[in-house]
UniProtKB/TrEMBL annotation, chain A:
UniProt keyword list: Heme, Iron, Membrane, Metal-binding, Mitochondrion, Mitochondrion inner membrane, Phosphoprotein, Transit peptide, Ubl conjugation
InterPro entries: Cyt_c_oxidase_su5A/6 (IPR003204), Cyt_c_oxidase_su5A/6_sf (IPR036545)
Species in which this protein is naturally found: Asbolus verrucosus
Molecular function GO terms recorded: metal ion binding
Compartments where found: Mitochondrion inner membrane
Membrane-topology descriptor: Peripheral membrane protein
GO term, biological process aspect, one: mitochondrial electron transport, cytochrome c to oxygen
Protein name (database record): Cytochrome c oxidase subunit 5A, mitochondrial
Pathway: Energy metabolism; oxidative phosphorylation
Stated role: Component of the cytochrome c oxidase, the last enzyme in the mitochondrial electron transport chain which drives oxidative phosphorylation. The respiratory chain contains 3 multisubunit complexes succinate dehydrogenase (complex II, CII), ubiquinol-cytochrome c oxidoreductase (cytochrome b-c1 complex, complex III, CIII) and cytochrome c oxidase (complex IV, CIV), that cooperate to transfer electrons derived from NADH and succinate to molecular oxygen, creating an electrochemical gradient over the inner membrane that drives transmembrane transport and the ATP synthase.
GO-annotated cellular components: mitochondrial inner membrane; respiratory chain complex IV
Assembly and interaction partners: Component of the cytochrome c oxidase (complex IV, CIV), a multisubunit enzyme composed of a catalytic core of 3 subunits and several supernumerary subunits. The complex exists as a monomer or a dimer and forms supercomplexes (SCs) in the inner mitochondrial membrane with ubiquinol-cytochrome c oxidoreductase (cytochrome b-c1 complex, complex III, CIII).
PANTHER family per the UniProt record, alphabetical: CYTOCHROME C OXIDASE POLYPEPTIDE, CYTOCHROME C OXIDASE SUBUNIT 5A, MITOCHONDRIAL
UniProtKB/TrEMBL annotation, chain B:
Source organism: Asbolus verrucosus
Pathway(s) the chain acts in: Energy metabolism; oxidative phosphorylation
Any matching Pfam family: COX4
The protein's name: Cytochrome c oxidase subunit 4
GO terms assigned for molecular function: oxidoreductase activity
Family per record: Belongs to the cytochrome c oxidase IV family.
PANTHER family named among the record's database cross-references: CYTOCHROME C OXIDASE SUBUNIT 4, CYTOCHROME C OXIDASE SUBUNIT IV
GO cellular component: mitochondrial inner membrane; respiratory chain complex IV
Cross-referenced SUPFAM superfamilies: Mitochondrial cytochrome c oxidase subunit IV
Protein origin, superkingdom: Eukaryota
InterPro entries hit by this protein: Cyt_c_oxidase_su4, Cyt_c_oxidase_su4_fam, Cyt_c_oxidase_su4_sf
Amino acid sequence: MFRTTALRMHSLVKGALNVSKPSITATRFMSSHSTETDEQFDARYENFFNRKDIDGWEIRQGINDLCGHDLVPEPKIIIAALKACRRANDYALAIRIIEAVKDKCGGKVNEIYPYIIQEIRPTLTELGIDTPEELGYDKPELALESVYDIH
Amino acid sequence: MAGRLLSMRALAPRVTLGSAAMSDMKAIIGNREVVGFGYNGQPNYADRSDFPLPAIRWKENTPDVLALREKEKGDWRKLSLEEKKALYRASFRQTFAEFKAPTGEWKSVIGCGLMLISVALWGFYGMKTFVYGPLPHTFEEEYRKAQLRRIIDLQINPIQGISSKWDYEKDEWKK
């Protein structure tokens, strides 16, 4: 539903994954069009985040990878990622993931983001995660110097 | 000091680092926990919307941060709002709203552009006043009138141009 033609831009990041860790990429021939369907894509990421033994490193790897694609993640992927954050005991990571998903909505944020929040609301209440709006992080809180101005 | 860290990221090598280089970076980041791959595999921090999760936490692991981490292992509903915000700020420097906030730089760009344009316009005026010589005498009013009369007499551009606007019977401009 949120998918446009997915161009695999981050093969470099995937290539840097250690071989010993279970890879999120299946056997992949790097052509510009993949033969994976939307459901396979969703299932792959959901299964990745649903692994019982996932740790913070892998969650960050997966989210950075997911944000490289030209799509807004399906709510079920986000739910799996939030549950993974709970297993990894990292609250800030969960908030950051929701913020990143909101950013991925691009110009259509007012249509897509409320839908996503509505879909993941049961998980948010179950795990006790606040949305960035509830924390007051939808508006800037601190005014820090831009890194490009620090010399 | 952290700021210099961040500006160094543009100079960091893109090859796979050996353990010696990694330990150099680890010495720079101090007590910060390395939590991920980041955007290039090095233990640095950057707020980027295309790589939302940096490789290291933002703040060092001080005792109060560690106490919060212990509390984080329990039920998240028991965390107060301040603690949740403190946990976020311990891992991240700025929220998405903050690092994507508009800077208003465009105003200074337009302002400086207009100031430089005005300097150029003063330059043009100075050139005209002090540098350029006088116009030829043929630019005076009587000469130009005589040239226009000659153009009409020669019927220059009679179809759609200047002579088409002249009424040759009445010897005046067409109404």
